[in-house]
Amino acid sequence: MIEVDQLTKRYGPTTAVAGLSFTARPGRVTGFLGPNGAGKTTTLRVLLGLDTASSGTATIGGVPFRSHRRGLRHAGALLDAQQAHPGLTATAHLAALARSNDLPGRRVDDVLAEVGLTPVAHRRVGAYSLGMRQRLGVATALLGDPPVLIFDEPVNGMDPEGVHWARGLFRRLAAEGRTVFLSSHLIGEMAATADDIVVVGRGRLLAAGPVAAITGSGGSLEDVFLRLTSASVDYRAGGA
Ligand SMILES: Nc1ncnc2c1ncn2[C@@H]1O[C@H](COP(=O)(O)OP(=O)(O)OP(=O)(O)O)[C@@H](O)[C@H]1O
């Protein structure tokens, strides 16, 4: 379970997140949507203890991520596909993480097979395409077999087969009872993958609930998203 309660994060004069509250539940894929600059990445960074809240709380399984000793066993995240050192092989990258998190070495082969990277596991990550690096990021998130998974733009750079595979993986992880929290700008993809949606604009909650309830008033998820966020878009082509 992910619980964000009255979260506010300021960077100097900029309020990136303003009193945001929502919940992402086990057994569900929850999509996190919002225009550029809405505060999504900031929320994820605070949730993962990479940034501190100005006020409010963001917890995973009832506690702040940083206070958990079990690290990757508690929550797995893909925030940045560039996180692995380009000089390392995928195997070496994952093996080092497994060691430092006290995870069994066999998890490395398991997650490489899960994301389809076994044939290139001994190639340097610097030679990987963006889609392959994203798969490695997903493998890293899965390494500790955690109950909570957080993915920021996970299908960015993936080919259609990869997007299809990722959708099936997220659905399966939720069916196993895990909390799957996904940030993406691909609304069609979200409509096909998510059970619940959290929509933010300018750091504030605009809507939250099951996809069917949010689109219930008519139109596609894209129509509803554009309507909800029309007053919260900071960057629009043509200066309109
Ligand atoms: N380290 C920082 N220092 C100053 N301002 C920041 C910092 N990080 C984010 N911001 C500002 O906070 C706001 C929210 O940014 P954030 O990256 O969280 O949005 P986002 O919803 O993830 O956007 P995108 O969809 O473009 O990735 C923006 O105005 C951004 O400029």
TrEMBL record:
- Which Gene Ontology terms cover its molecular function? ATP binding; ATP hydrolysis activity
SMART domains reported for this sequence = AAA
InterPro entries, from UniProt? AAA+_ATPase, ABC_transporter-like_ATP-bd, ABC_transporter-like_CS, P-loop_NTPase
Can you tell which superkingdom this protein's organism belongs to? Bacteria
Q: Which Gene3D superfamilies match?
A: P-loop containing nucleotide triphosphate hydrolases
UniProt keyword Transport, yes or no: yes
Tell me if Nucleotide-binding is a UniProt keyword of this record. Answer: yes
Q: What residue stretches are annotated with the ABC transporter domain?
A: 2-227
Q: Which UniProt keywords apply?
A: ATP-binding, Nucleotide-binding, Transport
PANTHER family, alphabetically? Answer: ABC TRANSPORTER, ATP-BINDING PROTEIN (PTHR43335)
* UniProt similarity note: Belongs to the ABC transporter superfamily.
Report the protein name in the record: Putative ABC transporter ATP-binding protein
Q: Which organism is it from?
A: Actinoplanes missouriensis (strain ATCC 14538 / DSM 43046 / CBS 188.64 / JCM 3121 / NBRC 102363 / NCIMB 12654 / NRRL B-3342 / UNCC 431)
Organism classification, top ranks?
A: Bacteria, Bacillati, Actinomycetota, Actinomycetes, Micromonosporales
